[in-house]
Amino acid sequence: MGTLGTYYTRPMSPPWSKPLDVDRLSEAEADVDFAVPLAELPRLRAQLANVAGEVHGRVHFRRTAGVAVAELTFSGTARLVCQRCLGPLDVGVEAAAEVGLISTEADMNRVPEEFEPVLAPAGRISVGELVEEELLLTLPIVPLHADAAGGTCVAVDAPPLETHERVEDQTQRPFEQLAELLKRK
Ligand SMILES: [Zn+2]
User: Is the Cβ–Cβ distance between 71 and 62 less than 8 Å?
Assistant: First the structure.
C-alpha cells in the first residue's frame, strides 16, 4: 500500500533529472539532448537564492583512457537578481566542458589531466547534475549589473521614460512634417 501511494503521489520526473548509466552510455558513445529549467536545480538555487531561465544543449558520452567522459555543451540565459539594486539581471550562458566521470573519489587520479573530474556515485549521474556542476563554476556568486559612474546600476540610472519620450517627439517632428510635405506633391 505504502509503495503504491508513493507511486501515485510522486510528481513526474523530467528526463534531465533521471540518473543515467554512465558506463553504458559511454560504451555506446551516446548523445543526450536536453533542456533544463535553472530554477529546479537545488544546489544552484541554494547558492544564488533566486535563479530562473533555461539552458539547452547536448551531452556526448565517450570513453578515454578507461574513463567515462561527458562532453557537455549548452547555452541559454540565467535570470539572476542583481545584489545592488535587486532588479532582474540576465546572464548569457555559453558552456563547453569535458568531464571525467568517476564512481568514487578514490578514482580521482585515474582521470586524465585535461578533464574536470566529477563524481557519479555508483556510475550514475543526471544531466541536471552535470549542468548544475558547470553553472556553479561559471555563474557569478554575487551577480551585479554593469557599473555606472558612482557605483550605481546602469539600469537604474536610465532616464525616466517621460523625459525620454519627449526628446523623441522633438526629434521626430521635422521628419513627420517632411512626410506631410512629400504627400502633398
Ligand atoms: Zn543592479
Answer: yes
Using the mean position of ligand 1's atoms as its centre, give its distance from the Cα of residue 89 in Å: 7
**Beta carbons within 10 angstroms of residue 178's beta carbon:** 10
Q: How far is the CA of 159 from the centre of ligand 1 (A)?
A: 15
pLDDT in tens, 66-118: 999 999 999 999 999 999 899 999 999 999 999 999 999 999 888 999 999 99
C-alpha cell at 83: 545584489
Give residue 144 CA to ligand 1 midpoint distance, Å. Answer: 6
pTM equals 0.74
**Residue keyed to cell 551531452:** 59
3-state secondary structure of 152: coil
Q: Phi and psi for 12 in degrees, rounded to 5?
A: -60, 125
In the reported structure, the alpha carbon of residue 56 is separated from the centroid of ligand 1 by a whole-number distance in angstroms of: 26
61 CB contacts (<8 Å, ≥6 apart)? 22, 25, 26, 28, 29, 30, 31, 32, 68, 69, 70, 71
Give the integer Cα–Cα distance in Å for 182 and 116.
66
